[in-house]
């Protein structure tokens, strides 16, 4: 029997936490991974939400992730640290590295934390929000397995290495940038292919390196970096900081989560945390941010534009909406979660969204 | 009588240094500004080369730049500093801020230096090369006066705020990214307009916010950020770090160097310097960089591509070529420099490139 597809965010998070406990994670880490996935769904970044549960579990089962690993600080100074993720789930590694960064930044004004031996760490925004809560500016980068060619290349060499930056504001919604360094997500090309539609020139190249508008040919080829050589260069320095500098994989040595079942991913991350008070007082900074944001939003709008948005503003609204109205999941994902529930003797149906649940979680 | 247009880089730099001494800069600062301009010309970034001499002089003459100002560290901790440029020429401010950053990074592993009350600081690459000489990774950002609308906006609000990142390598050419956050430089649109050519859709919008292929209409409108909302967001966080966080101008409060003759520019910059040894030993890092770069360059090439290039590689070659063969300047720029020479009783003709000069400067 197939379940409804709308879920209460609190109860779905509890369900996911229970799943990861059954899979061998400590309670605290299981809850952290579940929180990370649900935050992505709430923000509408569905590709990084509970849809990832099955692949994370599969990599644990196949010995590609170590759910019992402890995260170690391998080398440190007052304002820097090199963290060894010891092949734990990426979001557990990421949050532990972030804690080190925020503590050092509080004590010394700034912290740079490099991370090696990690895995896919979810959305960058997840870490940004935690830093913003503590009045910190945070930059987060991660490398990823190969999907984009260098400018002039034919086949994937670089990942769509994400860049994320979070900045607190006063009354305004905080600034949250969380972007891949590709022009568009590969997912958009998959959708075009399924619909039999063409894609705009510039999104992708075919397997021989020719620009293509054919979605099928694009999927056999590579997605392209945002802004051509600019995106290539940005993706590359993210790989340098996350991979070359930390001792993690870089370029072709970051293994594909879906395809490589011989070795851990060896993803690298890089965190830069900034204590605002070291420059100007936090209250003054927040006033200036509010002024800046309100001035941008008050700019005259182009034809057919209703509102000028700040990075992260749409996602902020989605969170409010989905907390009140439930998280809608594709039926394929619900089916996967049902199978997982069955395997571990858990009950997914308890997390279905209804008015009663809604009141429970108020 | 009009002069030839090819100049010896060393002699032209001496000429420029003499010009800035005459304009009221201390010897050391005059030489620094000249060095910064010539480096840009050598790298082929002509828009930031000696062409800027006349506007810098004009702003000094009009009291918009203070050529006698000292740069002050207003606030500092072990790994952070807030620098007040006191409205000195931007490259003098920038180099002084960089010195603070490199010293702190050497002592404490990392340094974040914010700068306020500065002016146009030349190319980011100029600072990167100095950091690379000292085996440091450097990130440099600066805000700039308004040229790009936010996504959905109609008129300029953000600058094409540059992002620059430099990374040392071993035998390979170092990685040097120095990019504006616009899709293309406004200069390309000026050229299209002069030739009566159309520009590709996506480069710019007209003054009402409509996408345009008409170069004239584009010049009355705005250039667009690279990658749409991604470039908008990157430009914005550069403005936040350089301007909102430092107390410099931000958004509309960064004054236009060419148009505003009432107030200093109040440009802000932000430097992040990283001591590689705090993560992995510098020699190992350089080996990894060389491997990374050689693997990228060995990738299969797209049709009609001769070589896969690393960010900064073309500019590196140009420097070698122009040091040997002279710097070619537009006749308009030569004329401006001649007028400046006349005014200050200097002799530009001594800097003309010829075989004899070439041997002198070997």
Plain-language structure description:
2 copies of one chain form a homodimer. With 362 residues, chain A is of the alpha+beta class. Chain A folds into 2 domains: 111 residues, Malate/L-lactate/L-sulpholactate dehydrogenase, four-helix barrel (Hypothetical Oxidoreductase Yiak, Chain: A, domain 1); 189 residues, 2-Layer Sandwich (Ribosomal Protein S8, Chain: A, domain 1), CATH 3.30.1370.60. The longest helix of chain A is centred in the first third of the chain and has 19 residues. Chain A is globular, with a radius of gyration of 21 Å. In chain A, 56% of the residues are buried. The interface between A and B is large, with 76 and 76 residues.
Which labels suit this protein?
Mal/L-sulf/L-lact_DH-like_NADP (chains A, B), globular, two-stranded antiparallel ribbon, 12 helices, alpha+beta, homodimer, Ribosomal Protein S8, Chain: A, domain 1, 11 strands, 362 residues, Hypothetical Oxidoreductase Yiak, Chain: A, domain 1
Assess the beta-strand content of chain A as a share of residues: 5-15%
Helix content of chain A: 40-55%
Number of domains of chain A: 2
- The CATH architecture of the largest domain in chain A can be named as 2-Layer Sandwich
The SSE order of chain A reads EHHHEEHEHEEEHEHEHEHHEHH
| The CATH superfamily title of the largest domain in chain A | Malate/L-lactate/L-sulpholactate dehydrogenase, NADPH binding domain
What would the average pLDDT of chain A be, to the nearest integer?
95
Cα-to-Cα separation, first versus last residue of chain A: 29 Å
Report the largest inter-chain contact. Answer: A-B, 76 and 76 residues
- Our count of helices of chain A gives 12
Describe the oligomeric state of these chains in a short phrase. homodimer
Number of strands of chain A: 11
Q: What name is given to the CATH topology of the largest domain in chain A?
A: Ribosomal Protein S8, Chain: A, domain 1
Strand order of the largest sheet of chain A: 2-3-4-10-5-6-7
Which structural category fits the helices and strands of chain A?
alpha+beta
Specify the biggest β-sheet of chain A. 7 strands, mixed
How many whole angstroms does the radius of gyration of chain A measure? 21 Å
Shape of chain A: globular
Protein name (chains A, B): Malate dehydrogenase
InterPro entries (chains A, B): Mal/L-sulf/L-lact_DH-like_ah, Mal/L-sulf/L-lact_DH-like_NADP, Mal/L-sulfo/L-lacto_DH-like_sf, Malate/L-lactate_DH-like
Family (chains A, B): Belongs to the LDH2/MDH2 oxidoreductase family.
Keywords (chains A, B): Oxidoreductase
């Amino acid at each position: 029997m197939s379940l409804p597809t709308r879920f209460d965010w609190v109860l779905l998070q509890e369900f996911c936490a229970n799943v990861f406990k059954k899979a061998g994670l400590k309670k605290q880490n299981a809850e952290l991974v579940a929180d990370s996935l649900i935050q992505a769904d709430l923000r509408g970044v569905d590709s990084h939400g509970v849809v990832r549960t099955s692949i994370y579990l599969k990599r644990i089962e196949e010995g590609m992730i170590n759910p019992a690993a402890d995260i170690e600080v391998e080398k440190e100074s007052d304002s820097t640290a090199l963290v060894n993720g010891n092949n734990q789930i990426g979001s557990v590694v990421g949050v532990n590295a972030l804690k080190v960064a925020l503590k050092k930044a509080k004590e010394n004004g700034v912290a740079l934390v490099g991370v090696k031996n990690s895995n896919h760490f979810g959305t960058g925004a997840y870490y940004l929000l935690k830093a913003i809560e503590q009045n910190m500016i945070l930059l987060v980068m991660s490398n990823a397995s190969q999907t984009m060619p260098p400018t002039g290349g034919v086949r994937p060499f670089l990942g769509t290495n994400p860049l994320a930056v979070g900045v607190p504001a006063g009354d305004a919604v905080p600034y949250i940038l969380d972007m891949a360094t590709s022009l568009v997500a590969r997912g958009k090309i998959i959708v075009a292919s399924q619909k039999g539609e063409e894609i705009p020139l510039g999104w992708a190249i075919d397997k021989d390196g020719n620009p293509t508008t054919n979605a099928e040919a694009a999927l056999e080829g590579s997605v392209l970096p945002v802004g051509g050589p600019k995106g290539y260069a940005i993706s590359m320095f993210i790989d340098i900081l996350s991979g070359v500098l930390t001792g993690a994989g870089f370029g072709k040595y970051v293994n594909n989560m879906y395809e490589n079942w011989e070795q851990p991913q060896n993803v690298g991350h890089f965190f830069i945390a900034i204590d605002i008070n070291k420059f100007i007082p936090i209250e003054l900074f927040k006033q200036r941010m509010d002024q800046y944001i309100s001035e941008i939003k008050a700019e005259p709008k182009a034809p057919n534009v209703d509102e000028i948005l700040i990075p992260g503003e749409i996602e902020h609204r989605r969170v409010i909406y989905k907390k009140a109205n439930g998280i809608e999941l594709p039926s394929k994902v619900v089916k996967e979660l049902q199978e997982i529930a069955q395997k571990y003797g858990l009950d997914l149906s308890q997390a279905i969204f209804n008015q009663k649940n809604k009141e429970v979680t108020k």
